[in-house]
Amino acid sequence: MTLSGEELAEEAVRDVAPPSRLRVVTRRFFASTQGRIGFAVLALMFLLAFAGPLFTPWSYTDKDFTAFMQPPSATHWFGTLQTGSDVFAVTLRGMQKSLVVGLLAALVSTALAALVGAFAGYFSGWTDRWLSWVTDLLLVLPAFLILAIMSPLFGAGQWVLFVVMLALFLWMVTSKIVRGMTISLKQREYIQAARFMGVPPVRIIARHVLPNLSSLLIVDATLNVSAAILTETSLSYFGFGIQPPDVSFGTLIADGSRTAVYAPWTFWFVAGLLVVTVLAVNLVGDALRDAFDPGAKGRR
Amino acid sequence: MAGFLARRLLSYVVLVAVAASLAYLLAAVALDPRSNYADRTPKPPPGVVDAQLTALNLNDKTPLLQRYAVWAGGVVRGDFGKTVTGASVNDDLARRMGVTFRLILLGLVFGSLLGVAVGAYAAVRQYGWFDRLSAGLSFLVLAVPVVVLANMLILLASWANDNLFGTQVFLVSGEYTGGLEAGFWGQLLDRLQHLVLPTVSLSLGLTAVFSRYQRNMMLDVLGADFLRTAMAKGLSRRRALVTHGLRTALIPVVTYFAFTFGVLLTGATFTEKIFGWHGLGEQLINSIFTNDVNTVAAISLLAAVAVLFAALAADLLHAALDPRVRA
Amino acid sequence: MTPVLQVTDLTVSFGDVRAVRGVSLEVSRGEVLGVVGESGSGKSVTAAAVMGLLPPGARVGGSVRLHGKELLGAPERELTALRGKTVSMVFQDPLSALTPVYRVGDQIAEAVRVHRRVGKEAAAVRAVELLDLVGIPRPGERAAAFPHEFSGGMRQRVMIAMAIANDPDVIICDEPTTALDVTIQAQVLEVLKKAQRETGAAIVLITHDLGVVAGFADRVLVMYAGRPVEVGSVDDIFYRPRMPYTVGLLASLPRIDRGERQPLVPIEGNPPAPGALPPGCPFAPRCPLHVEACDEGEPPLFEVGPGQRAACIRWEEVRPWAPGQRTGDETGLWPAGRHAGEEARPWAAGRHAGEAGRARARGRHEAGARPLRTVLEVENLVKEYPLMRGAVFKHRVGTVHAVAGVSFDLREGETLGLVGESGSGKTTTLMQILELAAPQEGRVTVLGRDTARLGRADSTAIRRDMQVVFQDPLASLDPRMTVHDIVAEPLRAHGLPASGRRVAELLTLVGLDPSHAARYPQDFSGGQRQRVAIARALALEPRLLVLDEPVSALDVSIRAGVINLLASLKARLGLSYLFVAHDLAVVRHIADRVAVMHLGKIAEIGQVDAVYDAPAHPYTQSLLSAIPVPDPARERTRTRILLEGDLPSPADPPSGCRFRTRCPKFRSELTDEEREACVTVEPEVLPVGADQGAACHYAERRDVVRPGGIVR
C-alpha cells in the first residue's frame, strides 16, 4: 500500500460518520404508534405538571374560603376540596412530586441493579455470593412494611430520602436478570476474546457488558418509573409516603376516595391523570423494547 | 439431592432470621407503643403503663437488645409474643391467615386461568384484533393502581346497587354479614356477595399480568421446531398447539403461579384494607398504626417464609413438570 | 416411472422477499434427490412449502403434486391426513424438533396413532419396533426416556423412526446430519439408507454438504438465490458440471483425499440477499465467465445433456475445474476441448490463491525436518469438571474427565491441527492454554514460559504474543462496536496507539476495504466478519495464533477464501497456528501436523500426510473413513468403517483403552488374549513412523480414504 493510499484510507475512516445506534432506535421508536402516543402523552403530562400552574391564579397552598367542595367551574377548573383548595392546582402539584419521585427512583434503582448484577455475574465466587445474598435479603424483606415503618423519617422536605428508600426496594429483580445475562454474556466469544486479549475485567464490564445490556436497562428504567409512581401512590394513600403539607397522587387519591361518592371531582381527575401517566410510561417502555430489539416484537 | 435440599433450607433459615430480626429492630426503634396510652382518658399513671409495656415486652425503657433477646427466644419456641392489646399474636395471625387464604385463592385461580386463556389465544392470533384488544386492556389495567381500582369498584358497585338492582347485590365491606341468620345457603350467598368485588379487584390485575406472560411463552413455543414436527407427523394445527404447544408453554406460567401465591399471602394489603377483610395484609397496616411491634415482626417473618417457600415450591413444580429440569 | 412427488414452478415469497423463485423437481419411488445449496438459497423453504408448513404470511405459487394430486390450495384436513403418512420429514436440529416434555416412545406412538386406528398398547409396541429398526440399543427401555436424555445422533434416529412410522412414499430430509459429528453422520446416513430399503420411499435430501450428496443421491439439484441452477444425475453434476456456480462449489472444497497441496479456489463475493437480487443471472457478479449478456435476463435451464439442465448461457464453455497438473486425470473426465486454456478453465487460481500456493510451498515442512524453536508445549495436561445434575437442585453426580493427559508441542512457523468429535476435549484443551492459569495437572509452556509461574505482568506480555480467533465471527465481535474499535481494542488494551492508519493497514492485510472501518459487524457477511476477527488477532503482531474452528460457521464458497488467507498470512508473517477443528478435510488442507483427540486423550499425532494417508489408530481410521468425499465414483467403492454407538460419557470412560468400546478392531480383529491389553492397559502414544505416533496397542497403518487397503 502506498503512502497516499494509507492517507486516503485514514481520511475515509474519519469521514464516514458511524451510523448512530441512537438514531436507529429513535427512528424505530417513533415509527410505532404506541411509541408516538406514549411519548406525546408523557410530554403533555410533564408540560401540564410544570407549566400548568402558570395558567391558574390558584397555588396549591391557597384556600378559597368562598368555595368549599364546589364542582368544577370557571374559577376552579377541577372544583375545590373541603378545605377550599383548588383541585387543579393541588393535582398539578401532586403530579410534579409523583413524576419527580418516579423518575429519580427509577434512575437510582436501575443504576444499582446494573452495577450489582454485572459485578456479581462477572466476578463469580465470593463477590457473587455476597451480592446475591444481599439481593435475596432485600427481596425477602417486606418492602412495604419497611417503608411504612420508616415513614416518620420522610417528614417535610425529606422526600429525597424517600426516593432513595423506594429505589432500594425496586432494583433486586432487575439485578437478578442482569446477573443472569452477564453470566451468559461472559460465555460469549467477544467477551472471551477481550479477556484473552488482556483487557482488564472492570474495563470489560464497562465497555462490553453494560453497553450490551443497555437496551434491557433503558427499558427497565422506563418501566421502573411506573412501578415507582405506583408504589409511591400506594404508600402515600395510607399516609406512609409523601408527608403533608406536600401532596402527591397518593395523598390526593386517599382524600378523594373518601368524598368520591358525593364529590366525584375530588377523585376522578387525580385518578384519571395517574392512570394516563402510568399508561403513557408503560407504552413508552414497551415501544422502546421493540425499538431496541426488532426481533422480539410485542414481547412480555 | 437431600444434601442440597438441606443446604438450601439452611440458607433460607438464615435469610428469614436476618430479615425478621432486621424488621423487629427497625420496628422497635421506629414505633412507639407508649404513645397508644397517651390518648386514653383517664390517662393511666406512668407506672401502670410501664408495667403493661414490660409485660408485653414493648417497654422502650428496657434496652433494645434485651427486648430483642426476649422476642427472639419466644420466636425460636414458636411464640411471637403479644399484640398491643395483650392478645396472642399467634392466634391473631392464624385466624387472619385463614381469611387471606379464602380471599386470594379464588382471585388467583380465576385470574390466572383467565390470563392463561387470553394470553394463549392472543399469541395464536398474533396481531389479530383479539391480540390488540387484550394487549390494550392489560396495559390499561396495569396502569391502574389497586387503590384506585378498588375504590373505583366500590363506587361502581354502589352506583349499580342503587340504580340497577335497587338492592344491595354487591357488599363492599367485610367477609360476611355479622349475626346473619339465613341458613347454610343464605350464609353462602352472603359470603359470595362479599367475595365478588375483592375477587374482581385481585384477579383483574393478575389476569393482565398472566395474559402477557402466557402470550410471550406461547409465542416462543409457536416458533419452536417441535411444533413443526408435530404437524409434520400429521397432527392438525389445533391439536399440535394444544397438546404440544400449550403443554410446554404452561410450565413457566405454573411456576409463576406458585410464586404469586406466596407473595399475595401478605401482599393483598390494599384489597384487604379497602374491602375490610381482616386478613394478614390489613393487619400489616393496622399494626403500624397501632405501634404493634410484635405483630409487625411476626408478619415480616411470615412474609419472608412465604416468599422463600413460594420460590421453593415454584422450583419443585418446575422440576415436576419439566423433565429437562428434573434430570 | 411416474414421479411420486412433482413440484412445478414453485414460488414462495415473504412480503417483498422472494425466497423461492420457480423450483421444479420430481422424485420417483426409491430414488434419492439431493438438493444442494448454501444458506439462503431457498432449499429449506422449498421443503417447508412442499409439506405445507410455511409460516403464516408466506405466499406460495406453482404446483406441488403428490401421486398426481395437487397439494397447494388443498383443504387443511386433507393435508393433515397426508402429512406423516404419505410424505414425512426429518428436520435438522433433532433436539429442538422433539417436544421436550414427552417421552420419545410416546412421540413416535403419537405419529402412529394419528393415522391408524390402533390402540395405545399396539402403538407403543410399534414405537419400540421402530426404535429398534433405526438402531437404538435397548429400545424398550429407551422408549421411556425424554429427548434431552438422548445424544444428537440418537435423537436424529428417533426423528427418522417417526418419519417412517407410517411407511411414507416420500421422506424429505432437511440437513439431517448437519448438526452431527462425522462418525455419527455416517451412522445416521446408514440408517436413512436402511429406512429407504424398508419403505421403498423416495427421499429428498437437502444439504449443503456435497460429500453427503455424492455418496447418497441418485440425482442432484443445485440451488442458488432461490432457484435451481443445475440439475442432473450425480455423476453429471460432479464430473460434468455446466453451471459455473457448481464448478466453483466443487473447486472451493478442501478435500480429504487430495494430498497435493493445491490452493483452494474461492468463489469471489457473497451470495446475494434474497431481497436484493442483481438483474439478470443472480450468479453473474461472482462469475468468472461473466459477460454483458449475463446481465440482460435470468437464464432459463438449458437442456445440456440427457437428463441434465443448467442455467447458464455459456454452458457450452464451462468445464470442471481440475486441480493443477491433473488435467487429464485418472478419471479421464476432463474433456480435451476447443477451449483449452484460461477461457475454458474459469477457476484458474486467482491472486490470493496463487499467493497461498506459493506460501504453502515455502511454509510446509516435511516430516523429520521440523523447526527447532518451540512456541507452545503441553505436557500431560489434565482438566476435570464436576458433573452437575438438576437445574433446581444442582448437585454433583460425578467428574467429567474432559482432558486426561494430553501432550503435544507446536514449533515456530508450524500449524498443528487439533481434531476430534464434540466431547473429545479439544476445546477444553484450547481454553486451558488460553486461560494462562496453572493447569490442574501437567504443564503448559507458552512461548517458553510455564503458565503455572506467571505474574500478572508476565501473562499480559504473553497475551500480546498469543491471540485467538473464534468459531462464530458474529459472536466474537461485539455488535455494539465499530470495526475500527474492534480492531483497535487489543492495541488500546496494551497501551499502544490505535491510529486509523494502523487499523486500515490491518484491514488491508486481511483483504478488507479500509474505508469500512466505521461500519458495524452486522453490516458484513460471515466471511468478512471472520476477516475482521483475524485482523484483530493480528493487531499486536502475535507469534502464536489459536484458531478455534475458524471456518466451520462459514458457507462453503466463502470458507475457501478464509482458509487461503490464513495460509498466506502464516507464510508472510511467520505465524504459528494451533488450529482446532472437527472438519478433517480443512485440517488436512492447512495443517503441517495433526493431533487426533478422542475422549480427552490423543489417539494419534503426526505429520499430516502420514496420518491421513496411513492412519495407524483405529479411531483415526474410522474417522477418516466416515468423511464423505465429493466424488461419487469413489464414494460408491468405499467401504466405511462404521463405529458403533456414541462417544462414551467423559464422566465414565472405559477402562484401559478409552476407545475399545467403539473400536472395530477390538470388536472383530483381535483375539481374546490380545483384547486383554486393551481392557487393562491404557495405551501411550508410541511412534509408528518418522513423525507419527498412535496410542494403540495394535497400531497398524492403513489407507482408508482411497480404496487400496493396508499400506504396511
Describe the structure.
The complex is a heterotrimer of chains A (300), B (327) and C (712). Chain A has helices at residues 3-15, 21-31, 33-51, 87-122, 126-140, 143-149, 159-168, 172-187, 189-197, 201-212, 214-237, 249-259, 265-292. Chain A has 300 residues and is an all-alpha fold. Chain A starts with a helix and ends in an 8-residue tail after the last helix. Chain B has 327 residues and is mainly α. Helix content of chain B is 77%, strand content 0%. Chain B has helices at 2-30, 46-55, 64-76, 89-124, 129-143, 146-165, 183-222, 225-233, 237-267, 269-275, 280-289, 293-321, 323-326. The N and C termini of chain B lie close together (11 Å). Chain C has four domains: 3-28 and 39-170, P-loop containing nucleotide triphosphate hydrolases (Rossmann fold, 3-Layer(aba) Sandwich); 240-344, no CATH class; 360-366 and 368-591, P-loop containing nucleotide triphosphate hydrolases (Rossmann fold), CATH 3.40.50.300; 607-710, no CATH class. An eight-stranded mixed beta sheet of chain C has the order 6-7-8-3-9-10-12-11, sandwiched between helices. Chain C has an eight-stranded mixed beta sheet with strand order 18-19-20-15-21-22-24-23, sandwiched between helices. In chain C, helix 4 (120-133) crosses helix 6 and helix 15 runs parallel beside helix 17. Mean pLDDT of chain C is 84; it is low at 324-363. The B-C interface holds B 1, 3-5, 8, 224-226, 228-237, 244, 247-248, 251, 315-316, 318-319, 321-327 and C 51, 53, 76-77, 80-85, 88-89, 91, 93, 96-102, 110-111, 114-115, 146, 148-149, 159, 162, 165-166, 389-395.
Keyword list:
heterotrimer, A: 300 residues, mainly alpha, B: 327 residues, 0% strand
What is the element layout, followed by pairings?
The complex is a heterotrimer of chains A (300), B (327) and C (712).
Chain A: H1 3-15, H2 21-31, H3 33-51, H4 87-122, H5 126-140, H6 143-149, H7 159-168, H8 172-187, H9 189-197, H10 201-212, H11 214-237, H12 249-259, H13 265-292
Chain B: H1 2-30, H2 46-55, H3 64-76, H4 89-124, H5 129-143, H6 146-165, H7 183-222, H8 225-233, H9 237-267, H10 269-275, H11 280-289, H12 293-321, H13 323-326
Helix pairs in contact in B: 1-12, 4-5, 4-7, 4-9, 5-7, 6-7, 6-10, 7-9, 8-9, 9-12, 10-11, 11-12
Chain C: E1 5-14, E2 17-27, E3 32-36, H1 43-51, E4 58-66, E5 69-70, H2 76-82, E6 87-90, H3 104-115, H4 120-133, H5 139-142, H6 152-163, E7 170-174, H7 182-199, E8 202-207, H8 210-216, E9 219-224, E10 227-233, H9 234-239, H10 244-251, E11 302-305, E12 308-310, H11 351-363, E13 374-389, E14 395-411, E15 415-419, H12 426-435, E16 441-446, E17 449-450, H13 456-465, E18 466-469, H14 473-476, H15 483-493, H16 500-509, H17 526-538, E19 544-548, H18 556-573, E20 576-581, H19 584-590, E21 593-598, E22 601-607, H20 608-613, H21 618-626, H22 632-637, H23 664-668, H24 672-680, E23 686-689, E24 692-694
Parallel strand pairs in C: 3-8, 3-9, 6-7, 7-8, 15-20, 15-21, 18-19, 19-20
Antiparallel strand pairs in C: 1-2, 1-4, 4-5, 9-10, 10-12, 11-12, 13-14, 13-16, 16-17, 21-22, 22-24, 23-24
Helix pairs in contact in C: 3-4, 3-6, 4-6, 6-7, 11-18, 15-17, 16-17, 17-18
